[in-house]
Protein 1
Amino acid sequence: EEFLEHGRHFHGYSAYGDMLNVPLLLWWPGVIPAGVAVPDTVEAIDLMPTLLELSQLPGPAEMQGQSLLPLLARNRDATELGWEPRPAFAERARAPIAFPDDPTGRSSLVIVHDGWKLIQNVERPDGWPEYELFDHVGDPINLENVAEAHPDLVKSLAARLEEWHANALAVRIESDTSDMSAEEIQRLRSLGYLN
C-alpha cells in the first residue's frame, strides 16, 4: 500500500518499492526449513515452479520462473543446487478503467539487478523523468532518485530492460474473451486485467 510516500495512498498507481516489495512466506513443517530468511529479490513467477517442485509435480514446458527451494537450503550455495541468479522485472501498466482518477497517467517498466532498481516511465506526465534509479537495498521504498549520478548504470540496466520487454511482448498470450459475458469482461476491466 502507498501511505503518501510518493504523494498517493491506496495501491496500483506506481512501481515504487512500497508497491512492489512484498514479503513471501512459505511454511511447511518438516519440509521447508524454519527460520530461513532469503535476501534475494525474486518474482511472483517463481512461486508456481516452487509449489510444483514441493508437490513433486511436473510443470509445463512453457513455465517461466524457477523454484525457490535452492535459496532455502541451509549452509549450501544456491547456485550449486540449480538457482540461476537473474534480474527481477515488473511492470505497472496504465489502466484508466481500473484507475479513472489516476492523475499520473504513468506506465512503467522495472528491473532490479545487482542491488539497483531502475524504473522506466514509458508513459508519464510532462516533467516526469523517463528513468529513475534507486539503491534497491538502502532505499527500499524508492525515495531518492540517483539516476543523474549513475548514467552508465542507467544505460546498462535500460538495455537489459528493453531486451526483457521485447521478449515478453513476443511470447505474450492474447486475451480471448469470446466465451465471456459482458458482465465478466466489465468486471475484469474494472480490476485492470483488460483494457
Protein 2
Amino acid sequence: MSSRTHRILLAVILGIYCLLAIGYGVTTPLFETPDEHLHFFTVDFIAREHRLPTTQDAGLMGQEAAQPPLYYVLGALLISPVDTTGASEHLWANPRTDTSAVAGQLWTNPRADPGNIRGESLADPPINVAMFVHPPDEAWPWQGYALAAHLLRLLSMVFGLGTLLCIHAAGRVVWPDDPGRALVATGLVAFLPQFAFLHGAVTNDATITFFSAAAIWQLLRLRLQPATTGRYLLLGLTIGLAMLSKAAGLLLLGYSVGVLGLLAWVQSDRQRWRETARAAVLILIPALLVGGWLLVRNWQLYGDITAANQFVEIAGGVRPYSLRQVWNDMDRVWLSLFGLFGWMNLQAPAWLYIVWNAIVVAAVAGGLVGLWQAFRNRETRQTRPWGIAF
C-alpha cells in the first residue's frame, strides 16, 4: 500500500466517523444521553460564574460539580459568547430520576422509563424511552442553550477524532511494516456505534478517552522506539491532563509507571532499573505539576484527593451491592460496549450485537494464537513486543 493510498483511506475513515458523530449529535434530543444535562450545566456554571464549582453549588450540576475541570473549562470558553440565560427553565425532567434542588420546579415527563432495557416494547405507549419532554426551543435553527449544547457536542467529536489519530499512531508503532493493520484498528473503533454516540454527546468521557489513548500510544513508542527525555516528559504532561479530565487519570499514572517497572523486571537488568527510576521521575514531575493542584484542592475541600466521597454522598451514601447484583447488571454493561443509546435503555438491532460479538471472539482467538506462537518460538519472543507475534 502506498503512503498516498494510506492517507486517503485514513481520511475516509476519519471523515465517516465525523459524519456519524455529528449525525448522532444532531438527531439525539438534547440531554437524552446519560448525565448530559449535568455536564452541560457544569460547563454553563463555569461560563457564567468564571470559577470552578464545588458540591455546595451542585444544583443542576449534581455530582459533576466535583469532577476534574478540563472538559468543562474548555467547553465554557467555547460557549461563553452564547446567551444561555434561563436554560434551566427549559429542562423538563422526570422527578423520579432528577435529584437536583430545583427538581420540584421542573416540568416533567411522566411516561419516562429510563434505565430499563429488559422489555420488548419499551418505546410503546404508555411508556417511552425519553428522559425529558422536549420544548420547541430545541428545534433548528439552534439558539441559546440549544446552540451551546450542540457546540459542546462538537467539542466531544473533536476529542474523539484525536482518539482515533492516537489509535492509528499506536498501530503504526506496533506494525511499522504493515500500515493496513493500523487502518483496521482505527476503523474498528471509528465505526463502533457506541464510540460515535458517546462523542456526539456532552460528556467529559471524551477527554479522558483521548488522553488515555495518547498515553498508550506514547508507552508503545517508548517500548519499541528510542526513549528520550522529551518523550518521558510528554507522557507525564499527557497524564497530567488526563488527571484534569477525570479521576481515572490517577489510574493512568499508576498504569504507566507500572508498565515501565514490569519491563525492567522482565529484563532483570540493574541498568534497566536505574533507567526506569529516572523515567518514572521524568513522568511524575510534569504529571504532578499539571494535575497535582487538583488533588490538593480536593483534599482541602472534601478530605479526599479524588473527591469520590462527594459522588457517594450525592448518590445517597454507601449502599450494599452484592456480587449477584453486579452480575445481573453485566448484560447492560456488555451491550453498552457496542451500542446502547438514550439513557442506556434503547437497544440497536440484534444483528449489530451478533456482528460485534463475533469480532470480539475473533480478536480473542487471534490473541491466544499469538501467545501460543510466542511460547513456541523463542526468537519471536525476542523480536516482537512483549513476546507476542502480531
Protein 3
Amino acid sequence: FLQNIRQDYDRAEELYERALSADANDANSLGNYAGFLLGRGELAEGSAFLRKALVQPNLPEALQLELCFYRLAHLPEEWAEALLLTKTLLTNKVRSPGWDLSINCQQAAQQNHPHSAFLNHLAQVIANTAEIESLTPFACWNTLDL
C-alpha cells in the first residue's frame, strides 16, 4: 500500500526493514524488499536480497515467479535461466494476481533494457490481467522451448 498506492517509499522501506528484523530469512519479505530496491535502481543491495530470497527453502511458486521477474528485469546475466523458469511456471498456471511490478518495469525501461516492452506484458500476465498468449508476439518468449 505504502509503496504502490501512496508511493511513500521511505515509510515502505522502514516497514520492509522492520519485517526483516523480525525474521531475516522470510522469503516473502526478502523477495518483496528485493523487488522494491531493484525498482528504485539500487541494483547491488536489491540483488543481495534477491539472492538471499532465492536460496530459502520451500519457496511458493507465486514467489518464485515474482523473483524470476526481478531477475529478468534487472540481472541480464540470468536472463536465460530466469526466462525458462518463468515460462515453466506460467505454463503451469502459476500467477500472482494483483501483484504490481510496474516500478520494476519502469526501472528496466530507464536502464534501456532490451526487452522492456516484453517485461510490461509479462508483468500483466503474472498479475493475471492478461493471457499468456499475449507473450507470443515477442521473439524472446519463443527462444526457449520447454
